[in-house]
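User: Can you fold this complex?
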Amino acid sequence: MPSIQKTPPATRTNAPSGRLYNFSAGPATLPVEVLEEVRDELPLLNEEVGASVMEISHRSAGYDEIEESARALIKELLGLPEDWYVLFLQGGASMQFHQVPLNFLPGGASADYLITGRWGKKAIREGEIVGRETGGSVREAARGETEDGFTYIPGPEEMDLDEGAAYVHFTSNNTVAGTQYHFTPEAPAPLVCDASSDFMSQPLKHPERYGLIYAGAQKNVGPAGVTVVLVHPDFLEQRRRPLPTMLDYGTHARKRFNTPPVFAVYVVDKVMKWLKDLGGVRAIEKRNEKKARTLYDRIDATDFYRGAVEPEARSKMNATFRLPSEELEKRFLEEAEAEGLVSLAGHRTVGGVRASMYNALPQEAVDALVNFMDEFERTA
Ligand SMILES: *Cc1c(COP(=O)(O)O)cnc(C)c1O
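Assistant: Here's the predicted assembly.
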């Protein structure tokens, strides 16, 4: 396998290749080195395999190696203890909204949910649906909402946690609102985290507090089609049984039960190698902090741009902001696009501007956005 190039992505993007500065919230920009390597390996993974990765058995040695490498790298990069399971599932993070309570909300049990945005609301709704079947229940233990929307992250003092909860579900980064937890909640029960939009963007603090962490790959670690699920073995043992085979985490922890999303896992493995090569989660955290600082400093520099959420809750992944009027916002988005700065529109439910700055987005893209913001304000 050719080695990952050492060239930082900043020097490659928006090059003559025609690639734009892509601020999409997901599926999102991938490291161009990874894309090039995938391209090079497409007709032929290697001489020994004699085919592309999409054409080989998911039980072959060729694929075994890829999945084991991806699994080992995720654990190594996050510093997760050896006994954690790393599963590559399908159905997106949205399937996890249902699968989590299906496995961990037995009759008579209750689970706490910290609601800080659209995805958390969807997660608790699935918990309600499952609870109706199992006799379990869900509780909203905190809600980071004001009349302006999901603008903040409730602190520990605002959390009404149940001592006997089966688990506490939270969304570490709120992709739509643009808020992020900058602390790890402390709870009497294992944490279950939807980390879809900040997975592998920084070190995982306090892994011992978690029972399960899940992330759709298409934000930070790969293409759509695979959801990475990390489960602690003790938590896994607490699941209800019997469960539908494919929806039982135990099925996938035990063995490779059916055909996994082979191509998506293959790309995830390459993105993990790229991440390791540039110094791992601490190095990417530094880069992400610099990008976020660059953009938020510009937003705060004048009154023209207004951050959409409380400054202490600002996300390093998705920066949301407003302009003085919706008309100016519309013009901003159109003119940005003409400059090659694309997918900056806020989520359709909230409007405004959203710049998603996942791991693979280079500093150069944020610098270009800030220059554009200066120019737009000057001429508005
Ligand atoms: C994108 C996203 C989801 C939904 O992911 P799907 O893979 O489309 O189901 C869920 N939670 C968060 C935090 C997200 O950013």
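Residues 26, 92-94, 119, 171, 175, 194, 196-197, 216, 219 surround pyridoxal-5'-phosphate (CB under 6 Å). Residues 280-379 form a domain with the Aspartate Aminotransferase, domain 1 fold (CATH 3.90.1150.10).
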